[in-house]
Amino acid sequence: MIVLASRSPRRSELLTQIGIAHRISPVEIDETPGKDEPAEIFVERITREKAYLGRALHPLAPVLAADTCVVLDGTPLGKPRDEEHAVQMLMALSGRQHEVLSGVILLTAKGESYRLSRNQVNFRAISEDQARRYWATGEPVDKAGGYAIQGLAALFIEKISGSYSGIMGLPLFETGELLTEAGLLKV
Fold first, then answer.
1. Phi and psi of 120, rounded to 5°?
2. Whole-prediction pTM value?
3. 38-61 residues labelled b (16+ CB within 10 A) or e (exposed)
4. 72 Cβ partners below 8 Å, 6+ apart?
5. CA-based Rg of the chain, rounded to a whole angstrom?
6. Which of 25, 46, 140, 153 is 20 to 30 A from 167 (CA-CA)?
7. What is the distance, to the nearest Å, from the Cα of residue 149 to the centroid of all Cα atoms in its chain?
8. Identified catalytic residue from 67, 73, 82, 142
9. pLDDT per residue as tens, the chain (187 positions)
């Protein structure tokens, strides 16, 4: 059994999908990007912080943590603070391609292993009214970039290149590599 240092039901569902027994142990950290912090460094830093907080709570168990970041023009968008911020993000993504980075780390007694999933998402053009109606569903409240690919926002997405599960928040290919290398998954 591993510990998932996350409160994300999506990450838990994805681990269940690949047959990994786990328990959820949410951790709270400040997910604010540092000034001029590159997106790749930001994602890795947040992923590591989550994992090591999870390890402090469960020192003997393997700990898995992940973080997902929507990046537009090199800038991490974070999670929306409120409706206006969400609409601003969605309008910035409208009609454009952006990047979604998902980091995943596994801490075991043997050490740590980290992977990064890099994905491209093409948003169709949406109106401000559509962005506000989407916000009113409640779906984007705690989502990187203000949207969830696995939900209603799928209607905004023309094309992806990369890992669907990575865009959801837990890249299963990379997670599978980590778990297999640690002897926790046999496929």
1. -115, 140
2. 0.93
3. ebbebbbbbbbbbbbbbbeebeeb
4. 92, 93, 96, 98, 99, 145
5. 16
6. 25
7. 11
8. 67
9. 999 999 899 999 999 999 999 999 999 998 888 888 999 999 999 999 999 999 999 999 999 999 999 999 999 998 999 999 999 999 999 999 999 999 999 999 999 999 999 999 999 999 999 999 999 999 999 899 999 999 999 999 999 999 999 999 999 999 999 999 999 998 8
Q: At CB < 8 A and 24+ separation, what contacts does 73-77 make?
A: 74/38, 74/39, 75/39, 76/33, 76/37, 76/39, 76/42, 76/43, 77/144, 77/145, 77/146
CA-to-CA distance for 122 and 156, rounded, in angstroms?
A: 9
3-state secondary structure of 126: coil
Q: Which helix (H) or strand (E) holds 73?
A: none
Query: Rounded to the nearest 5 degrees, what angle is found at the Cα of 98, between the Cα atoms of 70 and 135?
Result: 60
What is the residue type of 179?
L
Tokens, residue 58: 């469960």
Cα-to-chain-centroid distance, residue 19:
20
From first CA to last CA, the distance across the chain in angstroms is: 17
CB atoms near residue 29 (< 10 Å): 14
Reference 176, options 166, 167, 49; nearest CA is 166
**Distance set, CA 98 to CA 43, 48, 77, 164, 165 (Å):** 15, 24, 10, 14, 16
User: Is-catalytic flag, 67?
Assistant: yes
